[in-house]
Design brief:
The chain has 259 residues and is α+β, with helices and mostly antiparallel strands. It folds into two domains: 114 residues, Roll (2,3-Dihydroxybiphenyl 1,2-Dioxygenase, domain 1); 117 residues, 2,3-Dihydroxybiphenyl 1,2-Dioxygenase, domain 1, CATH 3.10.180.10. The chain has an eight-stranded mixed sheet. The longest helix has 12 residues.
Length: 259
C-alpha cells in the first residue's frame, strides 16, 4: 500500500465534504467507494468520518446552523503551526474563514480562501495525523487546484508552505505545475491554469481525485446512484480519469493510475 508522511508541511493530509444532504451523502459514498459512514459526533457539531478498511479516509459535515452547506469537497494541507500558517497566509493575501480551532486532541484546523479565491483547510496534527495511504481503491489519489491566476497561486503556496514548484507545461493551451517538498521528489499537488475554462460565475476550486480499480465502472456507479458525469472517462499520461458529481452537485474526480 503506498504511504507517505501526512504531517510534512504542505502535504495534502485530509479531505472533507460540506453537504446539504447528510443522509444522502452517507448512502452515496458508502455505495460508491465501499466506505463505512461512522456515527456523527455531537461534540463536533455532527461532523462524521467515512472509514475505509477500518481507518478514517474522509470527513463530512452538513449545514452549520443558518450557514448552508456549499456542496463542495475541501482538501487540508498539513502544517506544524496553524496559527503561524494562518498569519503567513493572511499576509500573502488569503482570507481567513476559520482561524486555528482545536478539534479535541485530534489536532488544530483552520480554513482559508487563497488569494485566487479557492477554499482549502490547514491541519496541525495532534493524535490524528490524517490519511497516509494513497492510490488504493477508495483512497485519495491526487489533489489539483483549478484557478484563473496560476502564477499568483504558485507564489502563494510556495511562500506560505515553503514548497518547490516544477513546471509540467507552460503554453497558452496548457499551463500546469506541481508542488513538492524542497527535500523530496514526490509531487504533492498540481496547479492548473483554468483562466480560459472557468465560467465567470464559478470560483476557483481544489479538485480531489479518488482512486478506483476501474474508472469506467465507477462512472457507471455514480450514474446509477443518482450522481452525474461532468466529464467522461478518458485515458491520460497520468491514468484514466473522469469528473463526476454526487447527487447534490459536489464535484470530484475518479482516477485509475495507469489505466
Amino acid at each position: 500500500m503506498p504511504t507517505r508522511d501526512p504531517t510534512r508541511p504542505g502535504t495534502p493530509c485530509w479531505a472533507d465534504l460540506w453537504t446539504s444532504d447528510v443522509e444522502g451523502s452517507r448512502r452515496f459514498y458508502g455505495a460508491l467507494f465501499g466506505w463505512e459512514p461512522l456515527d456523527p459526533d455531537p461534540a463536533f457539531g455532527g461532523y462524521f468520518n467515512f472509514a475505509r478498511q477500518g481507518v478514517w479516509t474522509a470527513g463530512c459535515m452538513g449545514d452549520m446552523g443558518d450557514v448552508r452547506a456549499t456542496d463542495t469537497w475541501k482538501p487540508y494541507l498539513a502544517t506544524d503551526d496553524v496559527a503561524a500558517t494562518v498569519r503567513a497566509a493572511e499576509a500573502a493575501g488569503a482570507q481567513v474563514a476559520v482561524p486555528g480551532t482545536p478539534v479535541g486532541d485530534l489536532g488544530v484546523q483552520g480554513v482559508l480562501v487563497d488569494p485566487t479565491g479557492a477554499t482549502f483547510g490547514v491541519w496541525q496534527a495532534g493524535t490524528w495525523p490524517g490519511f497516509a495511504a494513497v492510490e488504493e481503491d477508495g483512497a485519495p489519489s491526487w489533489f489539483e487546484l483549478h484557478t484563473r491566476d496560476q502564477a499568483g497561486a504558485l507564489a502563494f503556496y510556495r511562500t506560505v508552505f515553503g514548497l518547490a514548484v516544477d513546471t509540467v507545461s507552460d503554453t497558452d493551451e496548457f499551463r500546469y505545475s506541481t508542488l513538492r517538498r524542497p527535500d523530496g521528489e514526490v509531487a504533492l499537488a498540481g496547479i492548473c491554469d483554468d483562466s480560459g475554462v472557468l465560467p465567470d460565475d464559478e470560483p476557483p476550486y481544489w479538485a480531489i481525485y479518488w482512486e478506483v480499480d476501474d474508472v469506467d465502472a465507477g462512472v457507471a456507479r455514480v450514474g446509477a446512484l443518482g450522481g452525474s458525469v461532468l466529464r467522461g472517462a478518458e485515458s491520460t499520461p497520468y491514468g484514466r480519469i473522469a469528473m463526476v458529481a454526487d447527487p447534490t452537485g459536489a464535484r470530484f474526480m475518479l482516477r485509475t493510475a495507469g489505466g
